[in-house]
Amino acid sequence: MLDIFCRDKHGSAGALCPECIELLDYAMAKLVKCPFGEEKPSCARCTVHCYQPAMRARAQEVMKHAGPRMLKSHPILAARHMLHGVLRKPRQKSVK
Ligand SMILES: [Zn+2]
């Protein structure tokens, strides 16, 4: 996803630019620390908003840009990703 974004927005070919590598590293580090682990819902549904606002904004920009393009070039992957988000809804117990 990030590679689509970087290629279109930053004109990189093949490898990611330093800015995108930073974002990727950040995302990976967060994923490792995520309390949901393998059960992690897609970030849009995640109950733990672990990203710092600046990084979150960048990640959202990537999703917004690459999302529709991914749907075109990898419809099955994209569908699986969305399905994953729907099925892996975090169990929320309403605490009153
Ligand atoms: Zn980039």
In terms of DSSP E residues, the strand content is under 5%
Point out poorly predicted stretches. Answer: none
Shape: globular
Helix content: 55-70%
Total of DSSP H or I helical runs spanning 4+ residues: 4
**For the CA atoms, what is the radius of gyration?**
15 Å
Cofactors and ligands: zinc ion
Chain-averaged pLDDT: 78
Structural category is mainly alpha
- According to DSSP, the number of beta strands is 0
The number of domains is: 1
What string, H for helix and E for strand, traces the elements in order?
HHHH
- Termini gap: 39 Å
The largest sheet is: none
Topology:
Elements: H1 2-10, H2 18-33, H3 53-73, H4 75-87
Zinc ion binds at residues 6, 10, 12, 16-17, 19-20.
Task: Describe the 3D structure.
- The chain has one domain (2-87).
- 7% of the residues are buried.
- The chain has helices spanning 2-10, 18-33, 53-73, 75-87.
- The model has no long low-confidence stretch (mean pLDDT 78).
- With 96 residues, it is mainly alpha-helical.
- Zinc ion is lined by residues 6, 10, 12, 16-17, 19-20.
Question: Keywords for this structure?
Answer:
96 residues, mainly alpha, 4 helices, globular, binds zinc ion
